[in-house]
Design brief:
Layout: E1 14-20, E2 24-31, E3 41-44, H1 54-72
Antiparallel strand pairs: 1-2, 2-3
Length: 75
């Protein structure tokens, strides 16, 4: 997973947060200084038949949240 870039608004340190359930997960990135954040990115077990651990969905959601954050962060 890519490293988080500084906040695009204040240059503060960003943190990745995630919540994992039994069939879904979401993640977002938030600036610890000014509170700017990405929207929550969700991943769901749409198939229900595959044996996939909940952490699989959490990692996908985290990866997408980091991509959203870094796309608008300072270069």
């Amino acid at each position: 997973m890519a490293e988080l870039k500084p906040c695009p608004f204040c240059g503060g340190e960003a943190k990745l947060k995630g919540i994992c359930g039994s069939e879904s997960a979401y993640a977002f990135v938030i600036c610890e200084r000014c509170g700017a954040r990405t929207e929550k990115t969700y991943e769901f077990d749409l198939y229900g038949k595959e044996v996939i651990t909940p952490s699989f969905f959490l990692e996908k959601a985290k990866s997408r949240a980091v991509s959203l954050w870094n796309a608008r962060a300072l270069q």
